[in-house]
Sequence to fold (921 residues):
Amino acid sequence: MKTARLTLMLATASTLAAQQPVSSGGGATLIKNATVMTVTKGTLQNTDILLQNGKIAQIGKNLTAPAGARSIDATGKYIIPGIIDPHSHMMADAINEGSLSVTSMVRIQDVINPTAINVYRALAGGVTAINILHGSANTIGGQNAVVKLKYGREASAMMFPGAPPGIKFALGENVTRKNSGGGGGFGGAPQPPRRYPTSRMGQEEVIRDAFTRAQDYQRGWADYKARVAKGEKNLVAPRRDLELEPLVEVLEGKRLIHAHGYRADEHLMLLNVAAEFGVKIGTLQHVLEGYKIASEIAKAGAGASSFADSWSYKIEAYDAIPYNNAIMMRHGVVQTINSDSDERVRRLNIDAAKLIKYGGMTEDEALKTITYNGAVQLGVDKRVGSIEVGKDADIAIWSANPLSVFASCETTFIDGEVFFDKQEDLKNRVRKDLQRAELERAEENRVAGQGRRVILP
Amino acid sequence: MTRASSRVHVILSGTKNPGNSCAALGMAVGLVLTASTAQAQLGSYNPMPGPRGTYAITNAKIVTVSGAEIPRGTVVIGADGKITAVGANVAVPSGAKVTDATGLTVYPGMMDAGTSMGLSEIGQGAAATVDVSEVGSFNPNAQAIYALNPHSAHVGVTRVAGITHVASSPSGGIISGQTAIVNLSGWTQPEMQVVPRAALVINLPRSGFAGRGFGGFAAQNQGSTQDANRLRERQMDSLRAILRDAEAYGKAIDAAEKDKTLPRVQRDVVLASLVPAVRGQMTVIFTADRASDIRAAVTFAKEMKLKPIILGGGDAWQVASFLKDNDVPVIVTGVMDLPRREDDPYDVNYASPGKLQKAGVRFAITSGDAGSETRNLPYVAGMAAAFGLPKDEALKSVTLYPAQIMGVGDKFGSIEVGKIANLVVTDGDLLEARTNTKYLFIDGRPVPLDTKHTELNNTFKDRP
Fold:
């Protein structure tokens, strides 16, 4: 059984790899006569887009295709920037290193599985970039990875070039309940070990303690470097500390905090503690009660990444309202919608459309919550998030206005290359079915006891 | 997956497809303090409907669903809560309260036939607010209607999305209990109820490894496949036994009624609750997703002479002709679910309602959510329409079809004279996420559009 599954997985990967070079890296693509929702510069009717060398080379009417360029007639179709999901756990073979309260030393980039099929499924929803975060088991979690969903490539080729590094923080029930006794799953499964902190008081203290230790560590190195610079000899360098190094980067503004939390009070606590240490928070994640402290979030300059309309699934989500993003937006917060789910990431366009209903966003404002604002929050807005000349050619063609539930994604480009194409996908299904049938007939995949030959190692 | 928890935020992610892994820490605890806080918050968010009376919605585009669309017309609601007239040239009765719906569209209210609405307020960490399941395997007399909280905040936010009535089902065990069909408006359960005992819910024990769904018994049995199959056989024997006992019990009661000389039959509320189902008078909802489980459910229903509905139906399209031949309808749950197999087409679940429709299988679409996310039902149907289901069929799959499948097609699902006046007046296509509800009538009463969410919005939106 194991063999069969492995072989099938390989087959799937190779099938998809085989369909990749629809247009190769340098090859230009001219998309003609589409409705282009640039997100930052309005919606353009009957417009062409030229993709060249991985970038958006031209936007305009009646563009001419360079020699050898692929041409796509997009009459009646819509183009939007590739969707960016600021909160994902896709491709992560491990999510939580929850054994300690501070695990800033662990890195998501070390556990990325680039063959995860959900990458392809997200591409089919027009998604081109995601922020892969550590889980929310502990107050200070691990380091994130921002990736482009270049399905079929190695993990190293998927890392978003130049994206500032980040780190996960977490507040509230997910952090504390681990220790609350009586959790632990079905059928009297063993209790998880008790671990500090068990309250929101302890969470504040863990952060204050970690920042304080990081400051001391930073001073130790600064002092050492200053003495080296002065020419002092025979100095012993401070011992490197992999837990505190990323936190020093946080203090220096080089690493973004993405802080999971639900209740307004806990996020306000974090903003205040961070401010004491001169730290600006990158994003508040989930932040379902952000609407209660919208002014404070705006004043602190933090981003906010929320769910469109999820609520009531736990106590700290009971006051969540779908007007959250609109209220935060009107208070000046750069806010986004995220999925936190390999399923939901495939339909963030519908989540964005809900913001038009709940809170009265415009089409552009709604689309920004799944494109441009995410790019701003992840520090990659110079590269992606809107359709502008010079930006990365990370875009998707949709059958209709993507803010309609009746729309479906047809083609997804990253750096000018096609990573999802609906027509290709449909064509490949026949071949995949044949391939599957063939594999199922293969000797090593036959069920034992039904005439399967024993294969000796 | 268990329907009691929100679709997006399932805790028990496998290693392959971590769903919401922020929550991946195990089951939460019902802390007394937090649970009672939540309890205190329940119950004050659903404004009550206005009085019965004669109402007329005029100048509206009328999407009747059962008949032709009326570009501009009038719907009249009578004092009995029923639709009394609909058409392009309908006179407004004198004394009627008129709602001018110029530029707006009237639809029949939607129905979600696959919820546990009102049975579970906060799925995680507040066990005291969750009443979806009973202890033990056979609870045919556990009735959703008795646990359904009319003041659940879910009720309010769901109805303003245009879902005016639901079938709310218990879950868990082998016989979970009985489904209630209710209007999403009313001070009390009796005021909400339309059919308090509408169906029996059975989770047929599954063979081999468990799929999703209510029970997932085999999943809890960590032993070998052989052990799992042995357990299943025992469970199937018990299920057959209780159904046969109910049949015999029904006969004995009837016989004793007719012939007073017979010894008195000791009454049994458990068996009594099964009698309508074993006589084919009450439909039986079988939860099943895998093709083999669907076949097993239909075959079992035939053997026991039950009237089956499949709830779930993930693989139903694979056994479409079998379902059609046996005239078994499907309430499709997992349109938005990720494909279950690695090499399934990416749109396998989006496309499944379209395939069922083409094959002529009777079907409806449900949000598959216990309560809080039920309001997204129209967008689930919209997704099916984006992947092959004709738009008018998508609308029927959340209005007329669920009503017909649940045996209330004469009461709900279209704008026709004599039907219950559950009507939604919108500023756009009912299935679009950006569409707003402008007026709402449930059971012939005007329903205010305020909810817990609008209340919090109003409280905080202008906070400096």
Observations:
- The longest helix of chain B spans residues 225-258.
